[in-house]
Amino acid sequence: MPERDGATRCGPGAVVWDPTLCAYDFGPSHPMAPVRCDLTMRLAEDLGVLPRVVSAPVATRTQLETVHGAAYIDAVERGHPAPRWGLGTDDDPVFEGMHAASARIAGASIEAARLVAAGEALHAANVTGGLHHAMPDHASGFCIYNDVALAIRSLLDEGFERIAYVDVDVHHGDGVERVFWDDPRVLTISLHETGQMLFPGTGFAGDVGGPGAEGRAVNVALPPGTGDSGWLRAFHAVVPPLLEAFQPQILVSQHGCDSHSADPLAHLELSVDGQRASYVAIHELAHRHCEGRWVALGGGGYAIVGVVPRAWTHLLALVSGSDLAPSTPTPAGWRAYVAEKCGATAPVSMTDGYEPTYRDWNDGWDPDVWLDRQINATRESVFPLHGLHP
């Protein structure tokens, strides 16, 4: 890895943002409404926790081709329905300007990674990113270009030799895992609702990476109905020990907030408070193992008013170095903006009223509990590959 001084020379946290990022728009009936990002940025600004804002560049063709095939990029540029490439489906309908909008999101995540790699920011975020389902040769699950994989690839090209990726979206981070399946330099960890119940139907404990990279893919398949305490139990039983063993130089995370109980597309039961607790834990791990180097990306989240802006504003507060108390009221001006923009009633507080706790794995586990069986299966599959006792 190139010489870096870590936190001693880094500037404050940054968010890569431009209103044109909201041009990634599959249409009014699609659940992935770009207004969720606009509401997030406005809420963070109104609460005074918005990090330094950096303009979002458009990823170049050369950059896109570090992950995606040329023929697939050509198909996106043409902008016509093409089932072979996953374009024109219910999940990924084509829209005008699709290539440019998708490439700008990719460019924003690459820029966030560059800011941290260059020491220009200790933490950097792109809330419009996290499009973790896109495959090298086709669109999938609302995702055209895989900005996460592109950002990680750019970090590898910068000379990083150990990159940890933690994905807390309710859906398995299959596209990122696929790209780095055989690469021992990248540790991908995904905590998600089990593929037995939810798209994309993958991501089980036995999926541990390809030849020469065994143990570099980690999957925790959570039972439907898992709430704050169970989710945090799983996270702390798996993620900190693996990062301790792997010793990453930089941490990249995907923060889909569709694990919330109010999300219409999945079946986990987290609160905003539980999600915030996961962000705090990831932030702490970045400082423990990576001298603070942290690239935080968005992801899923389809409770557009009630969940996404609050969850991601807590994330941006951590990126900026702010301590935003869960009990903080939402600003009256922001609530009025939500009413005007969305015709909806906004939450009055940054909390759902919970104080998340969890039972430590070291206190014992119960083989009769579905969640504990899933955690144990992951630990037994992966921990020995890192020299850890399951």
Describe the fold and architecture.
Strand 1, helix 1 and strand 2 form a beta-alpha-beta unit. The chain is α/β, with parallel strands linked by helices. It has 11 helices and 8 strands. The chain is globular and about 50 Å long. Helix 1 crosses helix 9, helix 7 runs parallel beside helix 11 and helix 8 runs parallel beside helix 9. The protein has a single domain, classed as Histone deacetylase domain (Arginase, Chain A). The protein has an 8-stranded parallel sheet with strand order 2-1-3-8-7-4-5-6, sandwiched between helices. The chain is about 35% helix and about 10% strand.
Q: Which features does this protein show?
A:
10% strand; Arginase, Chain A; histone deacetylase activity; disordered N terminus; Ureohydrolase_dom_sf; 390 residues
CATH superfamily: Histone deacetylase domain
Strand content: 5-15%
Largest sheet: 8 strands, parallel
In CATH's first tier, which class applies? Alpha Beta
Q: Termini, distance in Å?
A: 31 Å
Query: How many H/I helical runs?
Result: 11
Over all CA atoms, what is the radius of gyration?
19 Å
Number of strands: 8
Strand order in space, largest sheet: 2-1-3-8-7-4-5-6
- Helical content band: 25-40%
CATH architecture: 3-Layer(aba) Sandwich
Return the average pLDDT rounded to an integer: 96
Structural class designation: alpha/beta
Poorly predicted regions are: 2-9
Which of globular, elongated, flat, extended, rod-shaped describes the shape? Answer: globular
Order of helices and strands: EHEHHHEHEHEEHEHEHHH
Domain module count: 1
> Looking at CATH, which topology would you report?
Arginase, Chain A
